[in-house]
Amino acid sequence: MDLLSNLEGGHVCWDDNDIIQGKPTGAVRVSFGYMSTYEDAKKFIDFITSSFVSMPNKSENRNTLRTKSMLLSNEGHERNAGYYLKSITVYPIKSCTGFSVESWPLSSTGLQHDREWLLKSVTGEILTQKKVPDMCSISTYIDLNKGIMFVESPRCTAKLEINLKTDSYPGGMEEIELRAQRYEVQYYENDVDLWFSHAVGLPCSLLRCSSSQNYSSLNKDRSRNLCRDVECTLNFANEAQFLLISEESVSDLNNRLSLIDAQKGTHGTSVQINPMRFRPNLVVYGGEPYAEDGWLNIKIGNTNFMIPSQVH
After folding, report:
1. What is the pLDDT of residues 73-132, one digit of tens each?
2. H or E stretch at 118
3. pTM attached to this predicted model
4. C-alpha angle 48-51-52 in degrees, rounded to nearest 5
5. Which of 110, 159, 199, 250 is the most exposed place for a label (fewest CB within 10 A)?
């Protein structure tokens, strides 16, 4: 656990917070004297490395997620070895339709280019599907080889092409704040904004995340609590870099809804919910319903993920 994260979570010396987010916060002091040698220190470092440090295998590609990869939870116990990654979905523009891929590169913010753009009204309001339902009809696709994001809307006859290079447009920079997170954003010229204004039916601007900085929040007792890992960099995602859901959990939800309809005597009228209704980045299968709610960390392929307890 990161030292700064513990501090902002309210942990101080000699308090009773021995465990934060499932990890011990204690420390062991190692003392060296005048008779200690370099070899003594080297032996201790080697012990720490061999016992507690997971070293990456440079021969493996750890920067790409692939579907059908095995998923291990709770540090890879065999009882959780039946899960697999079924689908990967990227949502480049917040609240707009995403696209599914067989594999996709990772970045410091999660899936590369995921929720890297958003739409802002002329009054400064961030647009979402709840406020502007027409955003769900805007489809996106990114061609990494060409370095272009393609955007389509039934309201627009022409397909919009946006160059992914950060220096490909002369727009300026500004700062916005969203959910206790401050973002430095880049904006585009009028032709791009006019396209999106026509697509959603109201004047708006397209913004691209350039960098972000998160803040710690205060609990009701005024003590500090970190809402996410301080090392976690977000684009315009709400709480975490990835949203994961299992097919079994959604299937159980559908069964419960059907049971409720049966009890009401409305057979055959229940709506079956698709996992994509939750706009997940990752859909997994092969386990028990809601098992993912208890995961603290998982490994997909060669990549390890930590799941903060606050976002379960």
Report:
1. 554 444 455 788 999 999 999 999 999 999 999 988 899 999 999 999 999 899 999 999
2. strand 117-121
3. 0.71
4. 75
5. 159
